[in-house]
Amino acid sequence: MALAQTFTDLVQSLPDDWSYLEFDLRIFDERRYVEAATLLVTCNAQPYSRRDWHWRLRVAHRFGHAASVPAVHAALTLLDDAGIDGELALRETRTGRVEVVPMWGRTESVREEFRVLRAQ
User: For residue 107, how many other CB atoms are within 10 A of its CB?
Assistant: First the structure.
């Protein structure tokens, strides 16, 4: 199965309150490592140095310091289009986290609207 399709299936199988995912990515043909690394730059894939897996992909749902779902999907689609086969493994999932934003000086209507939009 294609990497992008596998990623989409995994993300769609999660409940809506997930906030962070961590994947490991391995390609089968290691001679194409440099080519794959240049295609994965858009999602900030972090290489492993001495492991069976080649990269760690961090994904944020609505906020956070990680790549967005569309960015990771686009990078994996580039790998699929280039004919680079590999596999993904979901390593970590975090749920139920809410973005913290200072609300000093904001009206109560703004605070309530924020709670409704960001509530999980």
Answer: 9
